Structures are given as structure tokens and as C-alpha cells.
Amino acid sequence: MSDAKCANQIICDNIRAQLEHFRWPEAQQAGLIEQILGLSTSQAYRKLNGSSPWQLAQVEKLAQYLNIPTSTLLVNRAEPDAPATPAANEQELIPAILHLNNQSGEAHCWIQLGEELADDSCAPLLLAKRLHDCWHVFPGTQFDGEGGHEVTYLTIRPPKRANSKRLLVAVLDDKDADLLSAILVQQGLFALPYYQSQALLQALPQEDFDAFVLDWVLDEPGSCMQVIETILRHSPNVPIIVLTGYALEHENELSQALQTHGVYYIGKPAPGSILALQIKNMVTNALEPAGLN
């Protein structure tokens, strides 16, 4: 079996895919790289064929020129039906939050960890650090010499569930969907993040969700109760957990929601690991009666 692509090769493939939209010959593609990054012709060719490693600043500059998110050039976007490689096996991938510019999490991703970094003498393209309950991925230039691992594989496509016993949870939160999903996965669940209710509702026919975790206060038109009603019409026996730190402000609406069978409530804030365990127990207990029928 072949090894998974290295991060540099993934970047090369993504850049070539973007440049092929212009239908240019390789010489013209190299000329564009040369012009944008201020490289020599030979350096531009080496970038295109992967023999010269890409630096994150170069990837960001090229993404800005192409008017696409930098993450589009960084993450593996293999075809859904492509054969799984050893590194793409669910047993070897862990969830993480991808950061590109010292800002909030930009993408919910899955990574394979390489060797632990001993010093900053040779910074990798991407590094991973475990912070609190979750792994975070940063540019290698941000390595401070403590507690980092090289990232040898990164994808935004979550691996398929290993078996039907692993619960699949949909997480709707317009601010923290990625972080909460990563925490739930590390606690033994399988979670998919959604930042907009419409995206979640569109996924209902395609995904066989075992539970839903919804933030009660959503920064969008409509209400969480409307989302709950739509979910229940599609999946009447699947438990729904509502999260909020504003229970007093929404006491009447929450009370109405909690009178609905299968709807539960957990307050915010709560330590991530404890919150995940509470949700896991609720989901498991809610599903046990259905399994006895």
C-alpha cells in the first residue's frame, strides 16, 4: 500500500488544480508563480513539481492572488470514492482545529501526527499542539520549542464511521461548532459541525444522525425551536441536546422546548471534557430504549 501524501505534495496538487482552471501550459503556470512570489524560473518549476518545499507565507500570497481561502490549498481534498490509504484510516486520524493566522479556528480538520518536535532548528510546514481538550494545528513558524508534533497528513474530510456502534452527532453552533465537534470525537463520539441551521437541515436526508447538539442562541433568522421542529419531523426518535448560557433570558421558550419528548438541556459554560461526557451519556441513555424494541 502506498503512503499518504505529504503536506507539501498536497499543496502542490491543490495549486496545480487551481491553475488548471486557466487552461495554461506548465510554462505559463510557472511564470505566474515566478511573478507572484518573486522567484527565479527554476525555483518556480521546483515549487510546481514539489521538489522545493512550500512555505506558508508563499501559500497565503498565492491564495490571496487566486481569491480563495488559504485552507483550500493546504488540505487534502481526495475524491470520496478514492481508496483509503493507511494514513487516512480512521484509527490513525485525530480531529483538530486548523489555524492559519493566529486567529480563531478556521477549519475543522483531521490529522495524522508525526514525530514530536525536539527544537525549532527545522520547523515543519504545520505543527500540532494539544491545548486543553483539543488538538490545534498552526504554521510551523509558530513553534516555540515546547510540546509540538509535526503534522504528516491533514484532511477536512472526516473518516467514515468504523462501525454502526459509534454514535454520529450533528453539532449546530454558529461560533464553536468545530471545537465542540472535536471534543466530542475525542470522547468517543463521531461529530459533524454545522455553523448554519440550513446546512444541517439539508444534511438530514444524507446522514443517519444518532443525536443533535444545538446552540439555542443562533445569529441568524428564525429560532432554534424551528430547527428542533424540523428535525423532529424527519427524525422523531433521535435525542436533541440544547446548549445555552442564557437560560434565564430565554426561560419561557426553553421551557416550551423541554416539554417536547427527546429534547434535553445543558448549560454553558462547562469544561469541554465534562460537557462531552454529559452529552455522551444522554445520547447513550436515550438510544438504549429504542434498541430494546
From TrEMBL:
Keywords attached to this entry: Phosphoprotein
Annotated GO biological process: phosphorelay signal transduction system
Protein's name in the database: Response regulatory domain-containing protein
Modified residues (4-aspartylphosphate): 215
Start and end residues of each Response regulatory domain: 166-283
CDD domains attached to this UniProt entry: REC
Record InterPro entries: CheY-like_superfamily (IPR011006), Sig_transdc_resp-reg_receiver (IPR001789), Tscrpt_reg_BetR_N (IPR013975)
Keyword Phosphoprotein: yes
Keyword Magnesium: no
Pfam families attached to this UniProt entry: BetR, Response_reg
Organism: Chromobacterium amazonense
